[in-house]
Specification:
Cathepsin D, subunit A, domain 1, five-stranded mixed β-sheet, alpha/beta, 2 helices, 46% strand
Protein backbone atom coordinates (compact mmCIF):
# COMPACT_ATOMS: atom_id res chain seq x y z
CA UNK A 1 0.00 0.00 0.00
CA UNK A 2 1.27 3.45 -0.87
CA UNK A 3 0.83 6.65 1.11
CA UNK A 4 -0.76 9.50 -0.84
CA UNK A 5 -0.94 12.69 1.22
CA UNK A 6 -3.04 14.32 -1.51
CA UNK A 7 -5.71 11.61 -1.56
CA UNK A 8 -9.03 12.22 0.16
CA UNK A 9 -10.20 8.61 0.43
CA UNK A 10 -8.56 5.29 1.30
CA UNK A 11 -8.32 3.23 -1.88
CA UNK A 12 -8.25 -0.58 -1.87
CA UNK A 13 -8.46 -3.23 -4.56
CA UNK A 14 -11.70 -4.96 -5.53
CA UNK A 15 -10.43 -8.28 -4.19
CA UNK A 16 -9.56 -6.78 -0.79
CA UNK A 17 -12.92 -4.99 -0.73
CA UNK A 18 -14.79 -8.22 -1.50
CA UNK A 19 -12.86 -10.07 1.21
CA UNK A 20 -13.54 -7.39 3.84
CA UNK A 21 -17.27 -7.34 3.02
CA UNK A 22 -17.48 -11.16 3.05
CA UNK A 23 -15.84 -11.27 6.52
CA UNK A 24 -18.13 -8.52 7.83
CA UNK A 25 -15.21 -6.11 8.29
CA UNK A 26 -16.65 -3.58 5.82
CA UNK A 27 -20.06 -2.58 4.53
CA UNK A 28 -20.89 -1.35 1.03
CA UNK A 29 -22.44 2.11 0.85
CA UNK A 30 -25.87 1.74 -0.75
CA UNK A 31 -27.38 4.26 -3.16
CA UNK A 32 -31.00 5.38 -3.00
CA UNK A 33 -31.89 2.98 -5.83
CA UNK A 34 -30.67 -0.03 -3.83
CA UNK A 35 -27.40 -0.57 -5.68
CA UNK A 36 -23.88 -0.08 -4.39
CA UNK A 37 -23.07 3.63 -4.41
CA UNK A 38 -20.33 4.85 -6.69
CA UNK A 39 -18.48 8.10 -6.46
CA UNK A 40 -16.68 9.92 -9.23
CA UNK A 41 -13.04 10.39 -8.29
CA UNK A 42 -10.31 12.35 -10.06
CA UNK A 43 -7.10 10.37 -10.21
CA UNK A 44 -3.60 11.83 -9.91
CA UNK A 45 -3.19 11.74 -13.70
CA UNK A 46 -6.33 13.88 -14.12
CA UNK A 47 -8.83 11.31 -15.42
CA UNK A 48 -12.10 10.64 -13.58
CA UNK A 49 -13.50 7.23 -12.73
CA UNK A 50 -16.56 5.85 -10.92
CA UNK A 51 -15.57 3.64 -7.99
CA UNK A 52 -17.56 1.61 -5.44
CA UNK A 53 -17.86 3.13 -1.97
CA UNK A 54 -17.62 1.17 1.26
CA UNK A 55 -17.02 1.74 4.96
CA UNK A 56 -14.26 -0.19 6.72
CA UNK A 57 -15.38 -0.81 10.29
CA UNK A 58 -11.90 -0.89 11.89
CA UNK A 59 -8.57 0.12 10.37
CA UNK A 60 -5.30 -0.21 12.26
CA UNK A 61 -2.34 2.00 11.32
CA UNK A 62 0.60 1.09 13.51
CA UNK A 63 -0.76 1.31 17.06
CA UNK A 64 -3.67 3.57 16.07
CA UNK A 65 -7.17 2.20 15.55
CA UNK A 66 -9.70 4.08 13.42
CA UNK A 67 -13.39 3.26 13.07
CA UNK A 68 -15.84 3.72 10.17
CA UNK A 69 -13.24 4.68 7.58
CA UNK A 70 -14.67 5.62 4.16
CA UNK A 71 -12.97 3.78 1.30
CA UNK A 72 -13.27 3.15 -2.42
CA UNK A 73 -12.61 -0.06 -4.33
CA UNK A 74 -10.52 0.25 -7.47
CA UNK A 75 -11.52 -1.37 -10.72
CA UNK A 76 -8.06 -2.95 -10.98
CA UNK A 77 -6.64 -5.65 -8.69
CA UNK A 78 -3.05 -5.14 -9.94
CA UNK A 79 -2.35 -2.55 -7.27
CA UNK A 80 -3.45 0.99 -6.73
CA UNK A 81 -3.99 0.63 -3.00
CA UNK A 82 -3.49 4.00 -1.32
CA UNK A 83 -3.45 5.11 2.30
CA UNK A 84 -4.92 8.60 2.05
CA UNK A 85 -3.51 11.58 3.90
CA UNK A 86 -7.03 12.29 5.18
CA UNK A 87 -6.98 8.94 7.01
CA UNK A 88 -3.69 9.81 8.68
CA UNK A 89 -5.04 13.25 9.59
CA UNK A 90 -7.71 11.51 11.69
CA UNK A 91 -4.89 10.20 13.87
CA UNK A 92 -3.21 13.59 14.23
CA UNK A 93 0.09 15.18 13.33
CA UNK A 94 2.46 12.93 11.40
CA UNK A 95 5.87 13.18 9.79
CA UNK A 96 7.43 11.15 7.02
CA UNK A 97 11.10 10.20 6.75
CA UNK A 98 11.30 9.33 3.05
CA UNK A 99 14.96 8.33 3.15
CA UNK A 100 14.43 6.02 6.12
CA UNK A 101 10.98 4.84 5.07
CA UNK A 102 9.40 5.77 8.41
CA UNK A 103 6.06 7.32 9.29
CA UNK A 104 5.81 8.83 12.79
CA UNK A 105 2.86 10.23 14.70
CA UNK A 106 2.80 13.02 17.26
CA UNK A 107 5.56 15.43 18.11
Amino acid sequence: MELDTGADTLQISNSVSDELVARGDATPVWSSDGGVAKGIYRMADGHSVGLRKLTIHTLTVGTHVLHDVPAIATNDDRGGMLLAGSVLARIGKFTMDLAGGNLSFGG
